[in-house]
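Q: Hi! Curious about what Branched-chain amino acid transport system substrate-binding protein looks like structurally. Here's the sequence.
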Amino acid sequence: MVRLGTKPFRCLFPAIAALIVSACGGSREPVVVAAVGEWSGPDEIALKQGIELAVQQVNDAGGVNGRPLRVDFHDDKHDVTEAARVAAELVADPEVVAVLGHTRSDPTLVAMKVYDGQMPVINPRLSSPDLTGLSTWLFQAVPTDSAYSAAVVRFAAERGLRRTALLFNNTARGRATAEHFQKQYRGSVVAMDPAYFPAPLPGDLKTFVDYHRQQAPDLVFAPIGEPKEYIQQAQAQGLRAVVVGWDVWSSQTRDPSLPGDFYHVVPVDLASQRDETRAFLRAFRNAAHAEPTPFAAIGYDATRLIARAAAEGGDRAGIRRWLAALRPESAQAGVIGSLSFAPDGTAVGPEPVIVPVRTAAASAGGRP
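A: Let's find out. The predicted structure is below.
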């Protein structure tokens, strides 16, 4: 859990603060939001830390119309049956006004059948297109897979990378990601390989790296879930291509003593010089004594957005209406940029970026 100091932190969102601190003289019962997922993975831990920091700051600023904000964390075990059970429990609880979650696609798909028409949900974790347009009560705070692919296309164009090998999950989502990249890319795709992830057969990745080395691409785009062996094999075999992976590579490292040029796409740029981003970085470092990841920032912004929606909309239906009405002209400024939603609930505003994979030495030192 993030441990926070008592010194008030400068509010990042003046418009939100002005509304939140205005006590209405009514109930002092907490405004309850449920955060649902499985909270042990590195991205989920970062997400949880961002949520906790936002709750602390909202309450330091006076709460939601004078009422304290409370976020309760629930574990769905990444299981669809458990996700449906938790969702039904939350819908039946009159205290809960909104949900942050879930943290995996399949549990979210099942849970939304329960939430639909009854509970507003902001998902701060998933980029899957399977969620797009699933429900008018669901809002995705993370850019979609197609936005990720477009970011890699821009990266390739900026670097003049004209020969690409694609290695992707052999699923409908993985194939769609590869096809989206291929349609936008102006260079040559010299290899397009569906792999059996996240559980490849022993030796699969060694074979893929060897094949890619023979094809001599200058870019390998690998939106796969388990990159550790690929990075190790690419370094061991001296693959000379630039390798770009998926957002889940944020917890991976590379050996700085071996060659290789490794990157991964992330949903937002924490290296920007925006005032909101710099202020968030300072606050998070002071609170968690660690570097935030993009998912910490998204969890933070999503929580503050729900606080604003609760202050404006009040009940579940009002919160959903307020979120659905957000458009670029009324977007809410935050760490990740100006956030609003398209009519299908996808995020408008945050731009994915490509960042280097950390070295093992940097990881051991606690800084990316």
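A: A fun detail: The two ends are 20 Å apart (CA to CA).
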